[in-house]
Amino acid sequence: MAEEHTKNETNFKREMLAALPNLRAFAISLIRSRDRADDLVQDTIMKAWAKQESYQPGTNMRAWLVTILRNEFYSQIRKSGREVQDTDGAYTSRLSVPPEQHGSVDLQDFKTALAKLPEDQREAILLIGASGFAYEEAAEICGCPVGTIKSRVSRARLRLQELLGIQDENEFGPDAQVAAVTAAAAIR
């Protein structure tokens, strides 16, 4: 059994090596850059070697390798569409994010305010807002009518706004100063 495995592996290597010139020529025709074509062939050989158990001995090795190469080529093209070339760091230098400490403080304030809600309102708003249940599902969980859940959620939202001192939705996220600095950094 081990002898047959060694023989199959030797045949696999021999067939793969014989296919390399054609594989390289195909890669060059796709990419038109010898260096990148060589990289593509290397990636193809590595994938083929890792998946050699899926190769059926006696079938067309060259066709199998060309299929792997072609799929790898298209995968790289798709991947490159999502990547940004930034060799000089110009793109990276324009990126900025607001500081995290504001979000941490806001979250702690929210947790404190949430703890001050009556238990029935806290349960209702957590089921609807945090857990994503529909009003009907939350009503079933709590064993009460849907209208009661809606009322509890509404009262909880109003009480949270009052406890947190929130007047409108623009008060969420970074404050005006942090937003201005972040926007200015993105323009540079």
From TrEMBL:
Which Gene3D superfamilies is this protein grouped with?
1.10.1740.10, Winged helix-like DNA-binding domain superfamily/Winged helix DNA-binding domain (1.10.10.10)
Keyword annotations from UniProtKB, A to Z: DNA-binding, Sigma factor, Transcription, Transcription regulation
Which NCBIfam families does this entry report, sorted A to Z?
A: PRK12547.1, sigma70-ECF
Keyword Endoplasmic reticulum recorded: no
Q: Which CDD domains match?
A: Sigma70_r4 (cd06171)
Question: Which GO molecular function annotations are given, in alphabetical order?
Answer: DNA binding; sigma factor activity
What is the superkingdom listed in this entry's lineage?
Answer: Bacteria
Native organism is Agrobacterium bohemicum
Q: Which residues form the RNA polymerase sigma factor 70 region 4 type domain?
A: 108-160
The protein's name is RNA polymerase sigma factor
Q: Does the keyword DNA-binding apply?
A: yes
The RNA polymerase sigma-70 region domain, residue ranges: 20-82
Any one biological process term the GO annotation gives: DNA-templated transcription initiation
Pfam families, sorted? Sigma70_r2, Sigma70_r4_2
Matching entries from InterPro entries are given as: RNA_pol_sigma-70-like, RNA_pol_sigma-70_dom, RNA_pol_sigma70_ECF_CS, RNA_pol_sigma70_r2, RNA_pol_sigma70_r4_t2, RNA_pol_sigma_r2, RNA_pol_sigma_r3/r4-like, WH-like_DNA-bd_sf
The family note in this entry says:
Belongs to the sigma-70 factor family. ECF subfamily.
